[in-house]
Amino acid sequence: MELEILNFVKPVQGVTAFSTTRGEVEKGKPYSGVDLCDYVGDDALRVLDARLTLAMQLGVDLDDLVMPRQTHSCRVAVIDEQFRSLDIDKQEGALDGVDALVTKLTGVVIGVNTADCVPIVLTDPNAGIIAVAHAGWRGTVGRIAKLVVEQMHRLGAKADRIQVAMGPSICQDCFEVGDEVVDAFRQAGFDLDSIVCRNDATGKAHIDLRAANRDVLIAAGVPADQIALSTHCSRCEPDRFFSARRLGINSGRTFTGIYRGF
Fold first, then answer.
1. In angstroms, how far is CA 226 from the centroid of its own chain?
2. What is the three-class DSSP state of 125?
3. CA–CA gap between residue 124 and residue 33 (Å, rounded)
4. Which CATH number goes with the domain that contains 188?
5. 195 to each of 36, 89, 125, 185, 212, how far by Cα in Å?
6. How far is CA 143 from CA 2, 50, 150, in A?
7. 256, 112 in Cβ contact below 8 A?
8. What residue numbers bound the domain in which 36 lies?
9. How does pLDDT run across 37-49, given as a tens digit for each residue?
10. How many domains does the chain have?
11. How far apart are the first and last CA of the chain?
């Protein structure tokens, strides 16, 4: 399994962030490659095999891979010892409808699954806190990244120490949206001049989700020079990353995770 390592602006000792790549792709098979997401229609045994392979590669147990069942919400869950003490059914219930995770635990890999939305990893190395968020356009409008920073702060982090990296996601050129989406960003108070452009040929709006989330993080107190944006577009690189816009929603997902070593 090949991993795309996500680099923070400044080196962070003991913290590793990554996104999975598809690996071997069979044309016409939108689930082919490495898919860890168990609620998008892929074969359950294939998903389990991918999770086992990743856990083995990272040197953790399967139970140490923690990922929510995402619904484009703005819910943030804390993964702590109390959560870890729950049985598997209660853990799954606690993760249902969650789109971001925060933890201070070591040896636990927290991550999200995406197929064009923006995966965001965050760390305050001084406080020993890591986090991950799934930010589609709805989560971005709801400022999920700000909510994550606030939860990290409640656990002892400071916004000006937080470092951020974004994983593979759809680029602005590929992310065409309807005017109702633009209106949602306008009503939420975003600076449209910095995130929206129009295609001269089609007149359609295109939104830069990465820039929008960067603006949210800066407004939450994270220094701009501590935010690293991805240069990979999921739709432009469908043989490397899953893309719902390219492959359809009935396809696999790219897993983006972060963990602290023991």
1. 17
2. coil
3. 33
4. 3.60.140.10
5. 31, 41, 30, 9, 6
6. 31, 31, 11
7. yes
8. 3-260
9. 999 999 999 999 9
10. 1
11. 23
